[in-house]
Specification:
Largest sheet: 2 strands, antiparallel
Helix content: over 70%
Length: 267
């Protein structure tokens, strides 16, 4: 905000609040209260929820059951497998698609419009719905989860990487075209080398997202550790659920730190 300086003392004057600022704040407050009443929200829920006897079922954690290979370790390995496969498929397909839907590198206007429209539809559908749809289509298991996460990876990666391509320096591409280069070789030599480090960094970020998302997708039957969490929740074995969640928490933190360190070296 620009600060106004008076000529008398050289100090900036405090800007006056305008009437529309009060009106906007009042409307936001009224709409918040109205929304809270409509959904039955009460502020006392924040402390009343902790008196629920449900929390007593979370302790002690049965570590022998948690560290049993068939109970938790094998489903965790399956979760990693789902995340790796879906990241490779999703990010692999996203590489050419990102260049197609970027105005800088698209081959022509009709291709751009068709690809952009398809990706908008893919992004509009949540990953959980994709998982439910594919579980219904191909059956319960890791295969449906892999496909659902591949679509999720594709949507996220295309969004992130196409914006990076948009902001790339156009001069190498113009020079390649001016030298008589065809479209694909010109893009490969004029744009790809400058944006490829970002592509690798985003792929690592998508892998990190897929580890978390594959746990959620397991809740709807898409395989992985999420399936175990859902089964234990249905039997009210929240002590086992807590043990699984603690292991997932440690794994996610380790993967996040490795991913952040690699992204810092690349970008």
């Amino acid at each position: 905000m620009n600060r106004v300086t008076t000529p008398e003392d050289g100090r900036p004057t405090r800007p006056r609040l305008k009437l529309r600022t009060f009106l906007t704040a009042g409307l936001v407050l009224l709409f918040t209260i109205y929304s809270g009443r409509q959904v039955g929200f009460t502020i006392s829920t924040f402390w009343e929820v902790w008196s629920n006897p449900l929390w007593e079922k979370f302790w002690p954690v049965p570590w022998e059951w948690v560290f049993d290979r068939s109970n938790v370790i094998d489903p965790l390995i399956e979760t990693f497998q789902i995340a790796i496969i879906s990241t490779l498929i999703g990010c692999g397909l996203a590489l050419p698609l990102s260049f197609i839907i970027s105005p800088l590198t698209t081959p022509n206007k009709p291709t751009y419009l068709v690809a952009k429209g398809i990706m908008n539809v893919v992004r509009a559908v949540p990953d959980l719905f994709w998982a439910k749809l594919l579980v219904t289509a191909v059956g319960i298991g890791a295969f449906a989860g892999s496909w659902a996460l591949s679509i999720f990876s594709l949507a996220v990666m295309v969004k992130l990487f196409s914006e990076t391509v948009d902001s790339a320096d156009p001069r190498p591409l113009e020079a390649a075209r001016a030298a008589g280069g065809r479209h694909t070789p010109a893009v490969r030599t004029g744009v790809l080398p400058t944006v490829f480090p970002s592509y690798v960094a985003y792929s690592l970020y998508v892998f990190e997202l897929n580890i978390r998302a594959s746990i959620v997708l397991g809740l709807v039957g898409a395989g992985g550790i999420g399936r175990v969490v859902e089964a234990q929740r249905q039997y009210f074995r929240f002590d086992r659920v807590l043990g699984i969640l603690l292991i997932i928490f440690v794994i996610v933190i380790v993967i996040e730190q490795i991913s952040v360190a690699l992204r810092k070296r690349l970008v």
